[in-house]
Amino acid sequence: MLxxxxxxxxxEEVIVRQSRSWGAEDLLGAAEGxxxxxxxxxxxxxxxxxxxxxxxxxxxxxxYLLMDGDFDLDFYGMIAATQLxxxxxxxxxxxxxxxxxxxxxxxxxxxxxxxAVWDCSKLDEGSETEARSKxxxxxxxxxxxxxxxLFFKWVELIQYESNAPGGFTQERQAxxxxxxKKMFQDQGVDFEELSRELxxxxxxxxx
Length: 207
Fold this sequence. Notes:
- The protein is mainly alpha-helical.
- It contains ten helices and four strands, in the order αβαααβααββαααα.
């Protein structure tokens, strides 16, 4: 309630998550029994952070729905970050998909540490271009098979399903995938086989 009272309602809001039951030692490879790999090479980075900042997941979920067994919302952090933005002390681009890890003793009254920061927004660079290329390749293949109309029916179906109320959830994606398979099957085309043949099983809507 304090967070909403302080920041109000905005078209774009800052969501800050804090790790739950794991932290800097796990991520930086200093914990007992760790693999010795730190930062981006840490298993925790790959199994906790990368899934948490997946572009599709962030598009589909609100801040509250991003809470899970690995992360809680940091409401005081969201208030502070919003105030920094309002004062133009920092920019939205510097906070977008950023990971901050405090390297030091949080229990000490004296600041004796520093922050490690990963700009994970860079992971998305080029992804839209790659997805567009896959869609064009898909269209060209269907056109060569004399099934260009099937491509546009597929586009229409995915657009309809992804824009339906409630968002393009995992359940809705699964249902849409089944509709796509049947639609292609009715036209004598094996959707999954065609997708594997073109190497576009990942990164394209409806696959």
